[in-house]
TrEMBL record:
Name under which the protein is recorded: Transport permease protein
Species of origin: Amycolatopsis silviterrae
Membrane topology: Multi-pass membrane protein
Phylogenetic placement of the source organism: Bacteria, Bacillati, Actinomycetota, Actinomycetes, Pseudonocardiales
Signal is among the record's keywords: no
Keyword Transmembrane belongs to the record: yes
Keywords: Antibiotic resistance, Cell membrane, Membrane, Transmembrane, Transmembrane helix, Transport
Residues spanning the membrane: 24-45, 57-82, 103-130, 136-158, 170-188, 226-248
Compartmental location: Cell membrane; Membrane
Protein family membership: Belongs to the ABC-2 integral membrane protein family.
Domain ABC transmembrane type-2: 25-251
Amino acid sequence: MSNHFAGDSAVLLGRSLRHIIRSVDTIITTTLTPIAMLLLFTYVFGGAINSGSESYVTYLLPGILLITIASGIAYTAFRLFLDMKGGIFERFQSMPIARSAVLWAHVLTSVIANLISVAVVVLVAFAMGFRTSAGPLAWLAVLGILVLFTLALTWIAVIPGLTAKSADGASAFSYPLVFLPFVSSAFVPTGTMPGPVRAFAEHQPVTSIVNTIRDLFAERPVGSGIWTALAWCVGILVVAYFFANVIYRRKIS
């Protein structure tokens, strides 16, 4: 096995990125679908929702960014599944490259692709009236949270990518992740929800992450909420990374 992990990962990363560029449907789904949701909820439902003193597009954007990432990581599982079934993993094992570089190439591809989709969604939101008083440090904090969230979901995506029996099964796991923001503070304040739903919404990871990003955009004190959001992201990332690597080692042993 090669010790040049960084170099091997970079080469395989280039391979994965070329696959995305050639896949038009991937670009359309991961970028246009969240934009369509942003337009729909802002211009169709936004007038009926009380988002306080800020515009609804400003209130809505953090949740749409998480949905953008959740929908994008389905393609990580799908591409990983195709590599597994296509025999490319066996071919890589016969070559003098770091075995972990194969997984990390897919993970880094997910981070890059999702951050591009997020940037496009933010630009569209600005065109729709999104405004923020956030300074450079607040933007960096938002970026850091989104990268952590992407890494956490991507390592979750690695697991079905390695274990699924079909291409549909590999990507279907993301559906609950896409719909999780709908039962959170992403679209409406949790105080408007009935008791049991409110309890779930206020104690699931999306709400703490959305609220933290919303406070950072508004330059409001984030308090302990940012630590809750980071704890969710890091906790999910560590658990998913552990199980994904255990499964990967069994697959290639």
